[in-house]
Amino acid sequence: MTTNHQDKILTVDDNVPNVQLLEAYLAGAGYKVICAYSGAEALEILDGRDSGTGLPDLIILDVMMPGVNGYQACRKIKAGEETRRIPVMLLTALREIDDKVKGFEAGADEFLSKPIDKMELLIRVKSLLRTKHLNEDLESARDVIYTLALAIEASDPYTRGHSERVSGYGVRLAKRLGLSREQQDVIRDAGILHDIGKIGISESILQKRGPLSTKELIAVQDHPAIGEKIVRPLRSANLLLTVIRYHQERYDGKGYPDHLVGNEIPVEARIISVVDAYDAMTSPRPYRPPMSQSQALNTLEREAGRQWDPGIVSEFAAMIDDEEKARKQTDFHAGEA
Questions:
Q1: pTM as predicted
Q2: Of 53, 197, 241, 297, which has the most beta carbons under 10 Å away?
Q3: Residue 304: which pLDDT band, with cuts at 50, 70 and 90?
């Protein structure tokens, strides 16, 4: 059982013979093994304070260690922005189901009991690494689509920066609303990719200064479905696909493409709809100058309950107000200095 390239595995146990046994099994299967003898030492390696070994592809953590135990170390690893996607296997002699539940609650991807069976260890390691590399391939595909979306937008001076601003507004609003980290990630991606379907619309329509004809309006309304098709190769992005498809739905059911009503529209899409509209209104377009912040917020509030979710509009307006107060406070203190 060998690997095509040398994956790095960090093994962590306060018992030296256990680390040596793991190292022998894993190195014999073709893996590069990094050894640590405490939870604290493992976290130092991951923080880069060690000798610059780089991030591992997999971490095997003993649970029962003095100081920082395996549960605590796993929780910190999964909370780190750069380390949370590294698969973690918890290793323990404990047999109670509650102990395993505690491990999974800490974010563990796998749980292996002692004494270690070599074949079971290697099969589970191979499975975790295969999943990790498939996810990395999906991330690479996402990066390509990201680049395409931003390149399309950058070619138009009227929309340059729009998607990144929508993404930023959306993530901040999602945090304010208490949405999960996973939902925030979806909103971040949807903010960047929500208009990628406009690649299928004629530039003459997108930059037209006058009102659109019925045929042109239908073409514009195709962009959410086109965007969904473009992003569909990201097979793990099911929720992202629905947000892209539904970001032009209206709260009263008069939106497109599927005429969803109220809470039938996913909350992530309702958030993108609000922040997308706000940024569009406060940005210049070929057919009009930008609205002021207060004009845009007044429009959102006036149409809340019809075009947009009233609760989300209310929270967004409060967020903009808070951010504006914080900015003025910062400017005031900077002026005093």
A1: 0.61
A2: 197
A3: very high
Question: Are residues 311 and 163 located together in one domain of the fold?
Answer: yes
Judge whether 22 lies within some domain: yes
List Cβ neighbours of 94 (8 Å cut-off, separation of 6 or more): 63, 64, 100, 113
What pLDDT score does 312 carry? 98
Mean pLDDT in residue range 199-224: 80
For residue 58, give the 3-state DSSP assignment. Answer: strand
Question: Alpha-carbon distance 305 to 128, whole Å?
Answer: 46
Catalytic residue among 76, 126, 132, 198: 198
Domain of 13, CATH number, reads 3.40.50.2300
Q: Is residue 51 part of a domain?
A: yes
Distance CA 234, CA 48 (A): 31
Rounded to an integer, what distance in angstroms lies between the CA atom of residue 332 and that of residue 70?
47
Q: Count how many domains the chain has.
A: 2
- The CATH number of the domain holding residue 236 is 1.10.3210.10
The pLDDT-based confidence of 219 (bands split at 50, 70, 90) is confident
User: Are residues 212 and 325 part of one domain?
Assistant: yes
Examine the domain organization and report whether 252 and 189 are in the same domain: yes
- In sequence order, what are the residues at sequence separation of 6 or more whose Cβ sits closer than 8 angstroms to the Cβ of residue 252? 261, 305, 306, 307
Provide the mean pLDDT of the chain. 87
Q: Coil, strand or helix: which one is 11?
A: strand
Q: Are residues 257 and 169 in the same domain?
A: yes
Give the residue numbers spanning the domain of 175: 155-336
Confidence of residue 3 (pLDDT cuts 50, 70, 90): very low
Residue spans of alpha helices (H) in 64-110:
70-79, 97-105
In a domain, 144, yes or no: no
